[in-house]
Amino acid sequence: MAETASADIFDSDPPRPDRRPLYLVAVSLMLIAVSGFALDGNTALGALSVGTGMFASALVLYAMRVRRIRRQARLIDQAAALLRHDPAASVIADAEGGLRFLNPAAEARFRPGAPPDDGTGKSVSGLLRGLIANPASVVYRLQKKANSRGAGSDIVTTRSGQVILSLHDIGADLRLWRIEEGRAPPVEQGEAGLLPRVTVGRGGTILFMNAAARKLIGKRVSALDHLCSGTLVNGQVATLDVEAGPLPRLICEVELNGGRREIFFLPPPAGPGDSTSFDGLSVPLMKVSRNGVVIRANQEALKLLNRDDAEGVKLADLMEGLGRPVTDWLQDAAAGRNQNPSEFLRISRRDREVFVQVVLNRVFEDGEPSLIAVLNDATELKTLEAQFVQSQKMQAIGQLAGGVAHDFNNLLTAISGHCDLLLLRHDQGDPDYGDLVQINQNANRAAALVGQLLAFSRKQTLCPEVLDLRDTLSDLTHLLNRLVGEKVALTLEHDPVLRTIRADKRQLEQVMMNLVVNARDAMPEGGEIRITSEGLTLDSPLKRDRAAVPPGSYVLVKVQDQGTGIAPEMLQKVFEPFYTTKRTGEGTGLGLSTVYGIVKQTGGFIFVDSVVGQGTCFSLLFPVHSEPPKPEVVMAPEDDSAEGPPDHDAVILLVEDEAPVRAFASRALRMRGFKVLEAASAEEALELLQDPDIEVNVFVTDVVMPGLDGPTWVRKALENRPDVKVVFVSGYAQESFRDDQTSIPNSIFLPKPFSLLVRCWN
After folding, report:
1. Where along the chain do its domains lie?
2. Which has the closest alpha carbon to 631: 462, 460, 464, 461?
3. Which one of 3.30.450.20, 3.40.50.2300, 3.90.180.10, 3.60.20.40 gives the CATH number of domain 276-377?
4. Helices 41-83 and 20-37 sit at what angle, rounded to 10 degrees?
5. Considering the domain 186-266, what is its CATH architecture?
6. 3-class SS of residue 269
7. β-bridge partners, 129
8. Does CATH place domain 386-448 in 1.10.287.130?
């Protein structure tokens, strides 16, 4: 079935059959015939044995071939069903590149109007002919990757855009090829005025010409030897054979991977009185001496540098970013020793952060080498790279913080729990009471530090509720006034018709305290801190910095100070963890990163504006809460006035793999009058529940355990005991398993570390 379908899809030569079984059958039959008619004795017996063995081998080979063909047919049938609606051109070929199947997108792209004898449709290389230059080398390179790693991909730049080729080994000596074509990026479509550039392959084939190069050459050229009769030498002037006639151009080469290279055609060095070819070009260019002093810079380069004149200024004073001195880099380039003529540098300007890619090209004037530096604005590229690096950094720190929090919270639960047990047996007049209080307070400080680690990684457990910021900030005013001291005045202004938001009140208070403390520290001589709140409606997306705020209704909170301000180069780093501008010992660098994490986890946005010497303003945007408030599960403190055991005799099954935590929780629950059954694992708990005579009212279980986790074993247990209530306990954030918890009825969450004075059930 699969072979017929494949043959109907395209009319190509079938794969070359394996004729080894036929050869073996022929030879074996010949030996058997000879042994019966022409030989006798041991010779005939030997020939008969060999012939019989070869015949059996032929049958085995034939069976293997039939099995492989059937397996390939099944795979092709499955692929045909999966790839039928794939918008990308998808092709299945054998290990040698022979085509076996084309999906409808590939048929529509490659097959219409193709003559039967032009090679198209017989192999992947033939299929790609006309789409990319030298497809055989690309196919060979990807097949080598697939042979070693099972898959491979490559991006080929063409005149019309980019072609993305990917190859996957799907078994049975079959390969899946996907061919995706992309249009030329906008920078290529509108770059008629930029520097002429061509991309050249290993053998001198021109793979790509940008718009400026096509305009300069004026005709179609497939190889370098058709463009210039001589050899193109980096840093020397060559005469190009363009449509308008011979044209001298300075050659600048940049090595790429895979043996490819990019060649720029620069104007030749100008004479003493000629500046039009240098200054009139719409590409940032600089002429630099081997000692790093700028000789000339055209207007486009001066725009990037934000200067009126750069002549006589050292390049090291204009740009920074290399790990070694810029002068050494320039001297190596002037001497021809530079292995990487292209570098990313940061321009030293105070108004904004600008990155440039600098390509150096050596030229000679009167026997002395100098350098032509081609500058390309790479700010957007470096911004995207910074976003990617920041996301990776936050992800890595978040994973680390989650693991640290889990183990650390288990330790803190055991420490603070047993400390609570000791405090119950000592009164304030006991000599050990003060030491126990110190242990308890420091354990709580450690728990707060873990909470900060989870906050900036956005993995802390939140208890959101509907808040009116006017009431929340008014309640916080007394504490904030104590924090700022006598030299600083705190002023609050609120919109009289401020709408509500949904956030964690405790975390929001921490945000405001961190911002106010930073504002106070920025005004050592005193000043005023203004906290204002107002409603804000966005009709269109607000794009600022690296964030995009969607349209909608928001509550805007501003915290403004009159302090020293933040330098522009530091503004992008203030929210990074462990980054601080304070002196050693005065700050951990967790304050603003914690603020950022809490605001983002709440669904809001935070921006900062600052002018050195005038002050700083932090703007917080919180989405307006429009839905009716939902009832929240509240863990209420135990009433201290209620002494003795509770009025109900409940049975609790405690499941905890950490022995110290299990010991503390078990003792605490028994002190409350509950009957406690203990289990060190989920499997032990399920085995205990198999006894129908054991009655259990509440499951108290850790979430992450070896073997079955908390939600998994609880679901199994609730199948036979659906009325049992559940308390999940974990050192991880609740958000990491909220979906599992919401699917389990009558369940609440208790984060570690927890106090002895917390009731978790009704």
Report:
1. 2-183, 186-266, 276-377, 386-448, 465-623, 651-751
2. 464
3. 3.30.450.20
4. 160
5. 2-Layer Sandwich (3.30)
6. coil
7. 132
8. yes
Residues in the chain, overall count: 762
Q: How confident is the model at residue 733 (pLDDT cuts 50, 70, 90)?
A: low
Tell me whether strands 161-171 and 174-183 are parallel, antiparallel or unpaired. antiparallel
- Per DSSP, the three-state class of 423 is helix
Contact of 233 with 219, CB cutoff 8 Å: no
Topology of the domain comprising 651-751: Rossmann fold (3.40.50)
**Ordered strands of the 245-255 beta sheet:** 206-209, 197-200, 261-266, 245-255, 237-242
3-state DSSP assignment of residue 564: coil
For 465, counting Cβ atoms within 10 Å of its Cβ (0-12 exposed, 13-18 middle, 19+ buried), the class is: middle
Q: How many CA atoms lie within 13 A of 681 on its CB side?
A: 6
DSSP letter for each residue of 176-238: EEEEEEEEPPHHHHT-TTS--EEEE-TTSBEEEE-HHHHHHH-S---BGGGT-SS---TTSEE
Q: How far apart are alpha carbons 664 and 413 in whole angstroms?
A: 8
Residue 657 class from Cβ within 10 Å (0-12 exposed, 13-18 middle, 19+ buried)? middle
Does an H or E element contain 557, and which?
A: strand 552-560
Within its chain, how far is the Cα of 233 from the centroid? 40
SS3 385: helix
* Per-residue pLDDT reduced to its tens digit, 420-468: 788 777 777 777 777 888 887 777 777 766 666 665 554 555 667 888 8
| Residue 299 parent element (H or E) | helix 299-305
What's the CATH number of domain 2-183, 3.20.20.80, 3.30.450.20, 2.60.40.10, 3.40.640.10?
3.30.450.20
In order, the DSSP letters of 429-440 are: TSTTHHHHHHHH
Question: Looking at this protein, which amino acid is placed at residue 345?
Answer: L
pLDDT higher than 90, residue 265: no
Say what angle helices 2-9 and 41-83 make with each other, to 10 degrees: 60
pTM for this one?
Answer: 0.38
Structure tokens at 224: 């370098």
- CA–CA separation, 415 and 660 (whole Å): 9
Residue 160 has pLDDT above 70, yes or no: no
Q: Are 698 and 725 in contact (CB under 8 A)?
A: yes
Strands 197-200 and 206-209 come out as antiparallel
CATH pick for 465-623 out of 3.30.70.240, 2.40.50.100, 3.40.50.360, 3.30.565.10: 3.30.565.10
What pLDDT was estimated at residue 558?
Answer: 92
Interval 619-673: pLDDT, tens: 999 999 876 544 444 444 444 443 444 445 788 999 988 888 888 888 888 888 8
Name the phi and psi angles at 319, rounded to 5. -140, 155
